[in-house]
């Protein structure tokens, strides 16, 4: 197997170190220039050298919330293009949401998605199974069969739709305990969001767009943490977007309820003021909220109330966004800009250091999703799932350069800090000097 | 002011007064035996209606024809147009035919804004009502009607509506007319009070430049104009109010309530009226109700808007009102 010596990388943002990868694992790490080979049986002879030159080395990022669209919507993304986008963004594992066509509600579909990920080799793909058959919220899908399949599903979600029936949600929470699974809830009370087009508030009142009230998210989260407490299960909240949701999760954690929560990069940066342009590139579900919510989300991510950043990478073809607001699809791509947005909103603001970023974007998501071999420390003996980011870089986002098949980014032309330069999946480079291998 | 008319909020006070004054000039044309000006001869305007509205469409059409424009009516209703991308496709198709202006009515809030700002077409865009967002020519014709009735046809020239109290009653939540009127009336110095049951007022309304009241009777005695909005009885099924009867008892305008208004005060309605719901026949047919005048004024306002957008004169606030005597082709 090949050897790679990464020289002078700030591991988790610390002092520069040298890191030697041997085959699929990290063989040694030490302060720059001080690896002591004597007696280790190791040597860097013949290793390919990567001069990190002060870049930050992090464990490969893990995304608990990706829409890869295959099978069914290969016009917007495939497992291949989506995992290439993931590698470009520094990810080594992504969890693929179940709202495909057909829905990933059987062992057959999840195994197909899993195998495609293995075949292409850019990034591990861990399929998420649907909670209910066809995401219809009525009948539990064969959760156990999906868990026992080759895909080994542990995360279940009807994302895109809320499991709004309290009894179905309760049963799902209970049932997956048998194999350590977790239900990831897309919290959206359906009746309160009929015809919803954007956050309900000052801007929606002026624009005459149907409101998506914060309470539609918060009421479901409140119900679900109480259900999780009652049946002693763990529950994960997808794309938490409001200040009120933060308060509920904080309260639930203080009661010892086993709840985890994610926030998307776009909810950390953008507000509903952008909707004034009626440009559907800002149309997303849950919707962009207010400045006050953005600040609450950042603080909650910093203090650990929100556990992780997840992209909710949602590719859509051009024509689904090149139209009037009401007709447009909801969602934005995010894998290739996530780390830059987190750097801008959390690191450059002093809210989180790079070790904190590693925790929120790698360690914790891997732990919640039980992604074996991912989210591990950067130390000898661990799988070489790593990524390098040039944190000093500043540049504007050019969607033409995306590896994703879709271009529906809200950041086109926006200046963002940081650029991923390298990604290694079990010692194999998937992304080198800004280019996919 | 831009080359489009998308929202009443985009108009400065001077823009608005210029449109109102120009509309007075246009109204004089309507009094002539030949009601036509050559101003837009050779220019093509398309009325692109994705939503049924015969009243608004024929009002624009009358205005366009009186300005001698070539008119194309395109009704998307019933055609294959139903998906989102077809707004762009339809507009581009029409522009390829050499259209100078697009008058658009659309069920989606923001559709005219998208049409004007997405680089899809070069033509001027006039919003003839979009979703629950804006209907700027309606607000202009309402302001025109108020100025005529409350200030005077000739004395009103160059004037705004400073100090007048305007009350708008009804389904504010779903009303583009209410949004446009609040914006324009505020710009023109009027004091606006919105009256509705709390269910029919949008969350976030506190940022609007107006007062809110749930009590119609308390508001009437200080109103110079009371604008009644149509309330669709379907709203009842979505629990916005219990019954039509309860709605009209609490928020409808009947003769008894009208008597509480000051003597000079007028009753307005953008139409179509639902008699017996928000307004009784007695009020609708009284001399204080301006609904029919509003229709006539709508043509003058739309002539003024199209003239100023396309006739070479831009909405440049400092300029004096345009006089049209020299440009008529009366023979
Ligand atoms: Zn979701």
Automatic annotation (TrEMBL), chain A:
Binding residues for substrate: 67-69, 99, 285, 316
CDD domains: DHOase_IIa
Catalytic activity: (S)-dihydroorotate + H2O = N-carbamoyl-L-aspartate + H(+)
Pathway: Pyrimidine metabolism; UMP biosynthesis via de novo pathway; (S)-dihydroorotate from bicarbonate: step 3/3
A GO molecular-function descriptor: allantoinase activity
EC number: 3.5.2.3
Keyword Calcium found: no
Cofactor remark: Binds 2 Zn(2+) ions per subunit.
Pfam family of the protein (one): DHOase
Domain Dihydroorotase catalytic: 54-242
Active site: 312
Residues binding Zn(2+) 2: 159, 186, 239
Function: Catalyzes the reversible cyclization of carbamoyl aspartate to dihydroorotate.
Protein name: Dihydroorotase
Species whose genome carries this gene: Streptomyces acidicola
Lineage of the organism: Bacteria, Bacillati, Actinomycetota, Actinomycetes, Kitasatosporales
From TrEMBL, chain B:
Alphabetized SUPFAM superfamilies for the sequence: Aspartate/ornithine carbamoyltransferase
Pathway field: Pyrimidine metabolism; UMP biosynthesis via de novo pathway; (S)-dihydroorotate from bicarbonate: step 2/3
Molecular function GO terms recorded: amino acid binding; aspartate carbamoyltransferase activity
Ranges for domain Aspartate/ornithine carbamoyltransferase carbamoyl-P binding: 3-147
Alphabetical list of InterPro entries matching this protein: Asp/Orn_carbamoyltranf_P-bd (IPR006132), Asp/Orn_carbamoylTrfase (IPR006130), Asp/Orn_carbamoylTrfase_sf (IPR036901), Asp_carbamoyltransf (IPR002082), Asp_carbamoyltransf_Asp/Orn-bd (IPR006131)
Reaction(s) the record says it catalyses: carbamoyl phosphate + L-aspartate = N-carbamoyl-L-aspartate + phosphate + H(+)
E.C. no: 2.1.3.2
Residue numbers binding carbamoyl phosphate: 55-56, 105, 135, 138, 271-272
Annotated GO biological process: 'de novo' pyrimidine nucleobase biosynthetic process; 'de novo' UMP biosynthetic process; amino acid metabolic process
The keyword Transferase belongs to this UniProt entry's keyword annotation: yes
Domain Aspartate/ornithine carbamoyltransferase Asp/Orn-binding: 163-309
Organism superkingdom: Bacteria
One cellular component (GO) term of this entry: cytosol
Keywords assigned: Pyrimidine biosynthesis, Transferase
Enzyme class per UniProt: transferase
Gene3D superfamilies hit by this protein: Aspartate/ornithine carbamoyltransferase
Annotated L-aspartate binding sites: 83, 176, 230
Family: Belongs to the aspartate/ornithine carbamoyltransferase superfamily. ATCase family.
Subunit structure: Heterododecamer (2C3:3R2) of six catalytic PyrB chains organized as two trimers (C3), and six regulatory PyrI chains organized as three dimers (R2).
HAMAP family reported in the protein's UniProt record: Asp_carb_tr (MF_00001)
NCBIfam families named in the record: asp_carb_tr, PRK00856.1
Function (record text): Catalyzes the condensation of carbamoyl phosphate and aspartate to form carbamoyl aspartate and inorganic phosphate, the committed step in the de novo pyrimidine nucleotide biosynthesis pathway.
UniProt-recorded name of the protein: Aspartate carbamoyltransferase
């Amino acid at each position: 197997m090949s050897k790679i010596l990464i020289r002078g990388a700030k591991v988790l943002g610390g002092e520069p170190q040298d890191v030697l990868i041997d085959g699929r694992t990290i063989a040694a790490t030490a302060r720059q220039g001080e690896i002591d080979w004597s007696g280790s049986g190791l040597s860097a002879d013949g290793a390919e050298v990567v001069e990190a030159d002060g870049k930050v080395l992090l464990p490969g990022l893990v995304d608990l919330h990706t829409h890869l669209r295959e099978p069914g919507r290969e016009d917007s993304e495939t497992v291949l293009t989506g995992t290439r986008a993931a590698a470009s963004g520094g990810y080594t594992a992504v969890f693929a949401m179940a709202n495909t066509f057909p829905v990933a509600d059987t062992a057959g579909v999840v195994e197909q998605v899993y195998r495609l990920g293995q075949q292409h080799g850019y990034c591990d793909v861990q399929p998420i199974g649907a909670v209910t058959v066809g995401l219809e919220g009525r009948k539990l899908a064969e959760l156990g069969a999906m868990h026992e399949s080759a895909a080994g599903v542990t995360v279940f979600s009807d994302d895109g739709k809320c499991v709004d029936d309290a009894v179905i949600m309760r049963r799902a929470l209970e049932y997956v305990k048998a194999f350590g699974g977790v239900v990831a809830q897309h919290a959206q009370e359906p009746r309160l969001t009929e015809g919803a087009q954007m956050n309900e508030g000052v801007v929606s009142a002026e624009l005459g767009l149907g409101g998506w009230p914060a309470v539609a998210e918060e009421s479901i989260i409140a119900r679900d943490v109480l259900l999780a407490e009652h049946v002693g299960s763990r529950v994960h909240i997808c794309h938490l977007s409001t200040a009120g949701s933060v308060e509920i999760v904080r309260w639930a954690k203080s009661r010892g309820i086993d709840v985890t929560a994610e926030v998307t990069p776009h909810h950390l940066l953008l507000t509903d003021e952008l909707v004034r342009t009626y440009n559907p590139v800002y149309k997303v579900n849950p919707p962009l909220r207010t400045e006050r919510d953005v600040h609450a989300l950042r603080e909650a991510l910093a203090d650990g109330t929100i556990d992780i950043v997840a992209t909710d990478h949602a590719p859509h073809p051009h024509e689904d966004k090149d139209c009037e607001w009401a007709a447009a699809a909801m969602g934005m791509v995010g894998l290739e800009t996530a780390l830059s947005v987190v750097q801008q909103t959390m690191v450059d603001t002093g809210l989180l250091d790079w070790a904190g970023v590693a925790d929120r974007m790698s360690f914790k998501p891997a732990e919640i999703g039980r992604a074996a071999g991912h989210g591990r420390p950067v130390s000898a003996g661990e799988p070489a799932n790593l990524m390098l980011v040039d944190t000093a870089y500043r540049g504007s986002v050019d969607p033409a350069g995306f590896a994703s098949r879709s271009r529906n980014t809200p950041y086109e032309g926006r200046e963002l800090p940081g650029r991923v330069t390298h990604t290694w999946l079990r010692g194999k480079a998937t992304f080198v000097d800004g280019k996919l291998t | 002011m831009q080359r489009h008319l998308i929202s009443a909020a985009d108009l400065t006070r001077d823009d608005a007064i210029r449109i109102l004054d120009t509309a007075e000039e246009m109204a004089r044309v309507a009094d002539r035996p030949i009601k036509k000006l050559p101003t837009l001869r050779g220019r093509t305007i398309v009325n692109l209606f994705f939503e049924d509205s015969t009243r608004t469409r024929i009002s624009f059409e009358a205005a366009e024809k009186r300005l001698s424009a070539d008119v194309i009516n395109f009704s998307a209703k019933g055609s294959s147009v139903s998906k989102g991308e077809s707004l762009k496709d339809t507009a581009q198709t029409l522009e390829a035919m050499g259209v100078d202006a697009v008058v658009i009515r659309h069920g989606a809030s923001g559709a005219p804004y998208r049409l004007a700002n997405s680089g899809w077409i070069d033509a001027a865009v006039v919003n003839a009502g979009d979703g629950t967002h804006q209907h700027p020519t309606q607000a202009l014709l309402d302001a025109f009607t108020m100025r005529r009735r409350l200030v005077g046809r000739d004395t009103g020239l160059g004037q705004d509506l400073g100090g007048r109290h305007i009350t708008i009653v009804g389904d504010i939540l779903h009303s583009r007319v209410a949004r446009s009127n609040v914006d324009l009336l505020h710009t023109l110095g009027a004091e606006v009070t919105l009256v509705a049951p709390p269910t029919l007022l949008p969350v976030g309304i506190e940022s609007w430049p107006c007062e809110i009241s749930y009590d119609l009777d308390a508001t009437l005695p200080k109103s110079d104009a009371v604008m009644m909005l149509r309330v669709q009885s379907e709203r009842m099924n979505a629990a916005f109010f219990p019954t039509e009867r309860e709605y009209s008892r609490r928020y409808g305008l009947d003769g008894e309530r009208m008597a509480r208004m000051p003597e000079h005060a007028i009753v307005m309605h953008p139409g179509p009226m639902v008699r017996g719901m928000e307004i009784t026949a007695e009020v609708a047919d009284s001399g204080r109700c301006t609904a029919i005048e509003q229709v006539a004024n709508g043509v003058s306002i739309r002539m003024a808007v199209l003239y100023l957008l396309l006739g070479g004169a831009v909405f440049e606030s400092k300029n004096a009102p345009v006089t049209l005597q020299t440009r008529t082709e009366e023979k």
